[in-house]
Amino acid sequence: MAPLALLLSLLSLHTLSAASDVIVSNIEGRLNTDLPLDGVRVVLNGGAYSAIPRQDGSFVVHSVRPGAYLLEVQDVQSIWPMVRLDVSGKAAGKLRALLTHNRQPVPFPLPLEPLVAKPVFFEKREGFQWSSLLMNPMAIMMGVTLLIMVVFPKMMANMDPEQLKEMQQMQGGIADMLNPEKLKEKQQQQLKEKRKDRRE
Amino acid sequence: MWGAGHLVRRFGGSPFRRSARRTHPQFLLLTCTLMGLVQRLALLALMGLSNAMFEDQVDKIDWCTQHIGKVTHSIFHSTGPHRLALVATEQSVLAGVDLRHGTIIWRQVLRADEKISGFQQHGKVLLSLGIAPGRLFIRLWSTQGSLVWDAQLLGSAEESIPAPTAAFVGSSIVVAWKSTVVAFHGTTGAQLWALELGGEASDVAISAMLAPSEAEIIVYGSSSTAKGGVSLFSSKISADKGERLEFGSLGEVSKNLTSPLIATSDKKFIAGVDTHASKLLLHRVGTKSFHSIPLTAHQLGEAPAMLSMSLPSVVALRSADGGSALLKIVTGPNVEVLKKVEGSVPHSLAQASTKDGGAVLAVVTVSGDRDALVLETAQVQGDGTVDEWKGEDRLPWSMSLQGWAAGVWLNSYTRKDGTLGHRLLVSAEDHSLRLLQAAKEAGKSSWVREEALASVQQAEFVSLPSLAVDGEKMEVPSFAFALPAVIAGIQKRLSAASSASTTGPPPKYADAYGTRQVVLTRTGGSKVFGLHSSDGSVIWSYFVPPLAASDVPPALHSLHVSGHGAQPQAFLLAQGASSWSVLVLHPFNGKLLSQTITPGTILHATRLPYQLRNGLSPLLIVSTDLKVHMYPSTSETNGLMLEHYSNLYFHVLKPAEAALRGYSIVREADAFVAVERWAMIFPEDGAQVNLAHFPFDAAVHSPVRVLGDRSVLYKYVNRNAVAVGVAIPEQESEEPSIQVMLVDGASGRVLHSVKHSSCEGPINMLLGENWLLYEYWSKNLMQHQISISEFYTNSTVSDDLLSLVLSGPIDYTQRANMFDSFSPATSDLYALSQSYAFGTSVAAMGLSHTAMGITPKNILVATSAGQLAVFDKRLLDPRRPHVANPQKMTQADREEGLVPYMPSLGGINPLTVLSHRHAIKQPRMIVCAPTMLESTSLVFVIGLDLFLSRVAPAKEFDRLNEDFNFVALVGATVFLVVATVGSGWFANRKDLARQWR
């Protein structure tokens, strides 16, 4: 059935003799989409010829002079492929069509399908997420501090008394290093010791 | 950028390619495609960098209004739930307008060069006949607005193409055009037959057609005779096969018929007017001759012409002085006058057919006090008897606010009590479309559509004052009361979420960011509008009435806004038939402050860049006799002019002469006159010339461009530069070509010129501070192309570190002025250029415009399909390096932020489409205006539809995002406060406990 319809539509590519006796051809096709086609136009070379699709999506570009054309579907809802057309000047209805994006030949009437039927015009807004709040560097710092505050004393409590002593000494050392007054004291002590040594 | 680089590094890396080389060629191919895809993805990612919208911003930061244009044809029709006015307009739009509210139910926008000359409805279909040069478009639509079928007839592209006629005959549609009669199948549109009536006679023109029955058609027309007269003929054609059954001459007329033949609606008579002899030619269908009835006896005025109204045995005439007459055909045949209206009274005739084959005639005149329309009607029965003229219904109207009702369509309906009621659909001189009803039913259904907005020619933005204008209360946001504001905001959001709508009109004072502005629009309908930039509502409108009595409303020449803050003024220049006028309007309420009328014709008008003591800038107006006029013409402006006149230059493009002429101003005997200084003549045969200017109020932030290697290019920023684009169409021996020039507007010197052969216009140009962007169609490559040229000066200033140290900072004033238009050119410009293929045809281009010019630029492209896309200027940069692989870019180029060159900009990335789902039909120009925020620019697209949105080329760096999470901020603060207090209390308690231990 379908090939028959195709054949019939090929036969219907009738000619119209122009005033200047140039052989002109009609270009037929069909836009296959579920979206309404009210504002859609099919144009050649950006507006040299144009066609309005019918309700079923079929369109006819009338009386096209021989030459090479770029067929473009002007639509704001979907993205359509572009078709390169060669209209022969030898006989009416002698046409050739290639899809520009993959160089595939297409039969007539041009069966066109949108490349992207419903493109997304909007960026997605990222909503509020707990993970993003928690992954905040401040939050991480706070979390670590909290961890030290809560977990470390417990670890201390469970420690061996001897180890604790050792650690306290070590910590004391570190604390001394960090505390400037104690550091001064230490240095003075060291100085005193040195002087003692010299005297000796 | 990060995303792009990342993608390329991951997939475009060398290991992938090496493995490919070792394996199969197919794999190599795949890799190549993949590489291409990755590159495209990278590009897309980069394009996506520019601000895509969020879905919830729709209708908040943008608006789109749909228009149809000035209505020329209208038919009343009720279909299903709607009662429609099916209309055709001057802007070649067909539409169905709801009669109750005036909303557009459906709309079909045809080609801009197509003129709708025939419009008929038959049952559930609508036939439109459109004439474009050399073509007749025959289209059948359903009354719901979808195309049933279309067909075309070809003809030669003559100057005056006669109007076609059409008739529904049985199930087929017969169209007669010039000498051809063609029949189409009513449902499929297949051509059934075509008949050429011309034969050897060359100028046969069919002007009327009748279908007395479904079997036959009679066409009437004229052809010239050997003696120089005109012979009228009729021809009977069989409707099923298109055979010529009869052909007969009806007699000769001495002179050409200037008005077409009209068939009366009862199919009894064919009427025409011999305008020169003032005779009515009347033919009774079925007879073999014309009767000529002298009209002088009825005193109908000079040179009457036939109005194209089809009435039962009644014809309508209009005389040269504007008077009209309705004549009834009586047996004899002779005519008697039914109604006569003098030309001195503005009036319109209308008709409505009734169900029984009769008609209602209506004469609409203006009332004595000129603030109402008076409607008089008379009913014509099917058998030709005419009832009494009755009713003097008054309809609300204002001649000073709308002008005259140029087009009137009558809709008669039977009321419940059996009497006839009338509605009028009126297309006024200000292009507005109104539905009016007689006083008895006033307010029941009357609406107005401001269709002058379909022909906006200029738009100027004025910031609203920060104080309320009309005593409106203002809410002052304050940090001290932040909490109520936050609560109010939350409540507002909640209420908006629950009941999505019911917000009042936007306030008429400025917001903190300066996005609320008045858009002053000058239209083709002699009307100026002040639109609110927040929602497109009309704040005020001003119709410029005719400058002289018995004149048409003037054409609006230009609109200039001067002054700042709360005291700006809008100067409107209007050009009448023999005089011009300056109207000073208040930009916030549209009140006329003053008006002066001067005889003459405006050649050029501009606002001078100097300020008077009151903060306003004077206008400079040059009339066609080259006299210079100032507005206001005071001694102060004269003094200002004396000081500056030697620096004033202007240029005018004259399409009729195909010339661009430059003028300067000289002083001659105490008066200023303009003198032509230079001219540029273009090829006359159909060359299309257009100009582009850099907006004089646009800021240029930096005079240099710093490259990646820290060297500097000096921008050629010439405020006098004009871009001239010339598209030369295909000639017999030559290919089409386009030429784009940069011309100094003061001296007329061509600074830069490029010619692209075998390329076609129309050229869309955009002139930036030191660059020129233009779009055209490449015939050889079969693609739309965009070229960019950037101009730099060949500077000799040494600006390296050593010389800066030795000689101190550069004194730019000492340097020979590179931008003096008249200094001999020391060296040519240093121009960098690149071209790219573009995925779709471009209708208009614009450039984002910010307050200080610091923000990077966005290029706005309105496509022919009606989308508004945003492009980063970095994609249109002639310094894009030619590298096969983004990785091979030099470090310096990468630091400069350049994007590798690609021959194509690809299609339009949906994320860059600002207009999202709106289709902005027939876009013509894009106007951008700054806001208080440096990051943001308002974008206004002007076409048949109007669309306004915002762009922020570098994202909104100077304000918090609209989706900024205030809840998280408040939450975190509250948490910190609680934590501080809580932990303090806890520590105190612990301390106390320790002390007690």
UniProtKB/TrEMBL annotation, chain A:
| Similarity comment | Belongs to the EMC7 family.
State one molecular function term (GO).
Answer: carbohydrate binding
> What residue spans carry the Basic and acidic residues bias annotation?
179-200
What is the protein name stated in its UniProt record?
ER membrane protein complex subunit 7 beta-sandwich domain-containing protein
Mark the transmembrane ranges. 133-152
Where located? Answer: Membrane
Keyword Ligase tagged: no
Q: Which domain of life is it from?
A: Eukaryota
- Is Transmembrane one of the keywords? yes
Residues in ER membrane protein complex subunit 7 beta-sandwich domain copies: 37-141
Q: Where is this region: Disordered?
A: 175-200
Entry's PANTHER family?
A: ER MEMBRANE PROTEIN COMPLEX SUBUNIT 7 (PTHR13605)
Signal peptide (residue range): 1-19
- Where it mainly occurs, coarsely classed, is membrane
Report one GO cellular component: EMC complex
**Bilayer topology:** Single-pass membrane protein
Please provide the record's keywords in A-Z order. Membrane, Signal, Transmembrane, Transmembrane helix
From TrEMBL, chain B:
Q: Does the keyword Transcription apply?
A: no
Q: Which UniProt keywords apply?
A: Endoplasmic reticulum, Glycoprotein, Membrane, Signal, Transmembrane, Transmembrane helix
Residue span(s) of domain ER membrane protein complex subunit 1 C-terminal: 769-996
A cellular component annotation (GO) from this entry = EMC complex
Question: Is Phosphoprotein set as a keyword in this record?
Answer: no
Q: How does it sit in the membrane?
A: Single-pass type I membrane protein
Transmembrane parts of this sequence:
27-49, 964-987
Question: Could you tell me which Pfam families the record lists for this protein?
Answer: Beta-prop_EMC1_N (PF25293), EMC1_C (PF07774)
Q: Where in the cell is it found?
A: Endoplasmic reticulum membrane
Report the principal subcellular site: endoplasmic reticulum
Q: Give the GO terms filed under biological process for this record.
A: protein folding in endoplasmic reticulum
Q: Where is the EMC1 first beta-propeller domain?
A: 52-451
UniProt record similarity statement? Belongs to the EMC1 family.
Summarize subunit and interaction data from the UniProt record for this chain: Component of the ER membrane protein complex (EMC).
Q: What is this protein called?
A: ER membrane protein complex subunit 1
From which organism does this entry originate? Prymnesium parvum
